[in-house]
Amino acid sequence: MIRTSRVGLVHGAFLAFALLLVGRAAKVQLYDGATWRARATRQQVADSPLPAPRGRILDASGNVLVESRQLVKLQIAPKEVWGAPTKPKAVDAARVRLQTVARVLARVGVSSEWARKAVDTTDKWVELPGTYLASDVQELVAVRGVHSTPAIERVPPATDGLRRLVGRADENGEPVDGLEKSLDALLRGTRGTTAELRDAKGHRYDSPGVEGTAARPGHTVVLTINQQLQDIAERALDDAVRGMGAKGGDIVVLDPSSGEVRAMASRRADQRSTVATALTEPYEPGSTLKPFTAARLLDLHRARVDEVVNAYGGKWDYNGRTIEDDHKGTSFTLAQVIQYSSNIGIVQFAQRFTPREQFELMRDMGFGMQTGLPYPGESPGRLVAPKGWDKLTPASMAMGYAITVTPLQLATAYAAIANGGELLEPAIVKEVRASDGTVQYSHTRRVVRRVMTEETARTVRGLLRSVVEGGTAEQANLATFDIAGKTGTAKRTVHGKYVNGSYTASFVGLFPADKPQVVILVKLDDPSKSIYGGKAAAPVSKTIIQAMLASRDASLDRAELASSRITPAPKPASATPVATAAATPTAPVARSDRAAQAFASSANGDSAFEGGDTLVRSVASGSVPFVFRLGEAKKAPPAVVAARAVPSVRGLPLRRAVYALHRAGFRVSLDASGVGDAAATSPDAGTVAPAGTTVHLMRAP
Amino acid sequence: MRGRGIVALVLVGFVLVATGVIWRRSYGTLRAREQSALEQARSALEAERAKLDGDIRDAASRSRLARVAEERLNMRIPSDSQVFVVARPPRRTTRDPH
User: Fold this and answer.
1) Which among A158, A614, A615 has the least Cβ separation from residue B58?
2) Which of B61, B63, B82 is closest, CB to CB, to A625?
3) Is residue A536 within 8 Å of A528, Cβ to Cβ?
4) Most buried residue, A446, A489, A571, A638, by most Cβ within 10 Å?
C-alpha cells in the first residue's frame, strides 16, 4: 500500500509537472501568443524601406515626359571581398574578386579615385556615389562583399522648357520645384518594406518565411502639353532669342476652346533661372492690352469701330506728358487705333471709362490674380486699385503700362477673344490615373466668366486680323491662312525705373483668324536687333504656325483647318516658280484686297476667303505639296457657362469678399465704397447662378 | 508484440510526417528564393527597358531629328502654302429604305 502510494506520488508529481508545462506552453502559445510573436518579429526581422516609384508624367498624346526607374546603389566592403585568405588558391581567388570589382567599376564609369577606394583592403566599408543599372552591375553584385540597395531615379524631361514646367525631384525622390512639387501628393507613391531575418549578431539573411509589403507607385499625371508643339515652341524661342540678341523670352500656346496649355517655353540668359517664367515673371504688356479697351467700349456701346478721334500728327501733350505714336496720322478710327497701335487714339478712347470701370475691365480679364494653374510661385501680376492711381494711370493702363501680367494671363485673356467672349480657367493637367489605370480626375472646360459678347469678340477678331493684314504685324502673315493678333513694344523697368533702349517685344496671335484653334503668345526680353513686337516677335509666331502645319501631331484640327484655308492669289505670268519656303511669293495685290475685306467679312461672321481647289492650283504653281490625311473631326466642347453657387462672404473684409466672388466667376457691385466687412449678397450665398452674374455686395453697417 | 507494433507504426508515421514537413519547407524555400531572384531580374530588366525607351525617345524626338534633318539632309520646314489639308468630302445622305 505504501509502495503503491510512493509510485502514485511520483506519477502524480510527473503528471502535475507535465500539466504545468502544458499549461504554461498553452499560455505562452495561445494566450500570449500574439505578444510573443510580435516581440520575436521585432528582434528577428529587420525591415528595410522600399522606395515607391513616383508616378509618370505624360503629354496629352500619351508620350512619356518624366518617369522613374529602379536603379541600385552600391556598397563595397573591401575587407570582406579580400576575405583574409591563407592558402595560395584562396589568395588567387581573392585577387580575382578584387580585379572583378575594379574592372566592373571602370566599365560603369566610376571615377578612378572611388575605384581605388573600393579595392583598398584596409577599408571596411565604401559607399559608392551615384546609381547604377542593376543589369550593368550584375557581375559585381555576385561578388562576396559587394552589396546593393535599390534606389529610384527620376528621369527628367529632355528639353529645358519642359524641365522648367515639370520641375525636378532630388536623388531621394523629394520634389524640388515645378509640377513635381505642386502635384507631389498625386505623384508620390506609398513606400513598401523588404523583410530580412536577423540573427543574434545582427547579421541579415533573406528568408522566404518573412514577407515585406510591396511599394505602390504614384498616380500617372497626363498633362495638356503636346510634346511636338512644345519642341516646336522651344526651338522657335531658342532661335529667336539667339537671332534677336534677346536676354530671354517666353512662348505660351493655348487652346482657346478648352483653356488647355499646349506648350510653354521659357529662356533666360541667367543660367540660375530654372522655373517657368511664363508663369512666375510678370511684365508690362504694352500695346497687347489695347484690344481689351476696345472690346469693353464696344460692349458698353460707348464707341464704334468707325468712330474717329484726333491723332494730333503723332504727338500729343496730355496732363503734362507727351504721348507719341510710331505710325503718325491726323485722325484714326477705333479700328485704325488697333491696327496701327496708336497710343494717342487708345488714350482718348479710354477716357470714356471711369477709373473704376477701367479697373474692373482689367480685373475681369483675369489680371491681378493667379490663374489657378497648379504651379508653385505663380505670380498674380500687379493691378493696383483706383485709389492708388495718379492722374496719368488711366492713360498708362490704356497703353499697357501701370499693370503687369504674366504671359499665361495674357494668353488666357486673348483666348476669350478667340472663343467668343468666355474667360476660361487655364489647365495644365488633363487627366490623373491611379496605378491600376482608373481615372481619378479628368479636366473639363471651366468658364470663369463671360467678358464680352460673342458679337464683340467677333468684331475684335476682325480688328486683330487687320493688324496682321496691313498693320503692325504684317511679318506674322501667312499666304494661305488668316491670322489675327496684336503686337506690343513696351519699355522695360529696372528697379522700378524705365530704362532707355530696353524693351519687351511681344505678339499675341490667334490662328486661324476665323475659328481660332490656338492662341500663341511670343515675348522677347530686351532684343537688341529689333525692339518692335511686329519685327522681333511676330515672325516667331509665323514660324511656329508653319511648323505646326507641317507636323503630324501638333494639336490642330485639320478638318476644321481645311475650311479656313484661303487660296493664294495666282502669280503673275512672268514669275518664276520657286520651291523653297524662303522664296514663296506673298502676292501683295491679294493681300491689300484681303486687308480691306478682313474687317467687313469678320463682322458678318463669314470667312473672307473660301478655299477652292487649292491642291490642284498649288501643284500647278510648282511648289512642293505636303498632304495630310485627315483624322477624325475634333468635337467642339459644349459652350456652356457653368452655373455655380454664390459663395458665402458674410463677415469677410470687403476686399477679400470681392476677391472671393471674383474667383468664383461673378461680377461684383458694391453698395458703397470704403472699408468694412461684407454683410450679405444679392443673390444670397448658396444661390446657383451662371458665371458672370453680377452679385451685389452689401456692407455691414 | 501488438503494443510494440503500434509504437513502431507511430514512430514510422512520425518520421514520415516530419520528413514531409521538412521537404515541403525546403521546397517552399527553394521556390521562394527562385521567385525572389526572378523578381530582381525582372526589376533589373524593367529598369533597362525604361533606359532604352528613354534613349529611343531622345533619339526619335522632334528636337533632335529636325536639327539633324536640316543639317545633314538640307531638309526644311515647308511654308504654309506648301502644306495642303484636304477637305473632308461631304457625307452622303442615306436614303430611307421605306
Assistant:
1) A158
2) B82
3) no
4) A489
